[in-house]
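Researcher: Sequence recovery benchmark, item below. Answer with residues only.
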């Protein structure tokens, strides 16, 4: 398979912090011309069989997926797993453990928001939650837009919920080594998600992330994503080559009203890179 393939290997459903059901995403991907699709909900594989069944019914080739929250040297980073077996017991147990602290964290976030004059945010966020084990900052963001505190969810993250702002609660996610191992041992390929999004405290911190990710068996990096500019995509294309990693492409679509980038509406992957789907040909479900 070639680099020029409309693959979209990163998006979210109501099973995590997206607003569309897995079936609706499959239909939208197909309508937008996606040729290879993966649903990658945060810390959860509960939507995988629905997504695969919907994709199969539409004749849309599918890779099982997940996006795991990781704490690496004090920073939250995301690792996408593609081509995993969603029924793998170790993976499921690891994910259950990773999402376990979310409710307590959400209650603390709500307490901080109440202290700055925004009451009822826990209950408010819950109205947007499709999966009770997966309360996300995104659900708080939707509530703060609903109540008129902010104009859109991006403003919420600028003013609240991020490091140093009210509503931010430090949280310890999975370790990088565990996340990569769960993915690999479930038959998948680990992909370092949207690398330009991380506020590394120093250039050596980013190099350490790439080296350790690779050392643990990580095999790919997201180069083309909805959260990269053209210049960032170019920078991480170079990093992929430097570190000998394959390259992935995914919109990170969450919602028609919120996401800048729709399913399948991405620039092409640089033809000189090894596309991650070349490593996953045997894992594609037709
Ligand atoms: P959580 O896993 O609960 O910490 O929430 C992380 C999610 O918040 C991400 O997956 C995004 O969907 C969303 N998010 C994080 N930062 C931003 C931002 N600056 N603008 C919009 N959404 C964001
Ligand atoms: Mn999200
Ligand atoms: Mn992410
Ligand atoms: Mn994502």
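Model:
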């Amino acid at each position: 398979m070639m680099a020029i393939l409309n693959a979209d290997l990163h998006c979210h459903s109501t099973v995590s912090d997206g607003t569309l059901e897995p079936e609706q995403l499959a239909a939208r991907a197909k309508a937008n011309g996606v040729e290879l699709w993966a649903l990658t909900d945060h810390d959860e594989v509960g939507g995988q069989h629905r997504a695969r069944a919907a994709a199969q019914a539409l004749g849309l080739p599918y890779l099982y997926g997940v996006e795991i929250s990781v704490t690496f040297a004090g920073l939250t980073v995301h690792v996408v797993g593609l081509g995993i077996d969603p029924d793998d017991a170790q993976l499921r147990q690891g994910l259950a453990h990773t999402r376990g602290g979310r409710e307590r964290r959400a209650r603390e976030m709500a307490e901080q928001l109440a202290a700055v004059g925004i009451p009822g945010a826990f209950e408010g966020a819950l109205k947007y939650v499709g999966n009770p084990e997966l309360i996300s900052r995104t659900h708080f963001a939707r509530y703060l837009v609903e109540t008129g505190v902010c104009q859109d969810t991006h403003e919420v993250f600028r003013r609240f919920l991020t490091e140093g702002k009210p509503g931010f609660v430090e949280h310890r996610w999975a370790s990088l080594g565990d996340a990569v191992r769960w993915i690999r041992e479930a038959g998948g390929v680990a992909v370092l998600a949207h690398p330009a999004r991380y506020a590394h405290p120093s250039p050596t911190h980013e190099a350490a992330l790439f080296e350790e990710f690779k050392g643990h068996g990580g095999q790919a990096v997201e180069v083309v994503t909805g959260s990269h500019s053209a210049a960032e995509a170019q920078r991480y294309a170079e990093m992929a080559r430097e570190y000998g990693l394959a390259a992935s492409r995914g919109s990170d679509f969450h919602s028609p009203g919120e996401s800048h980038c729709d399913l399948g509406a991405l620039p092409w992957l640089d033809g000189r890179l090894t596309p991650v789907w070349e490593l996953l040909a045997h894992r594609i479900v037709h």
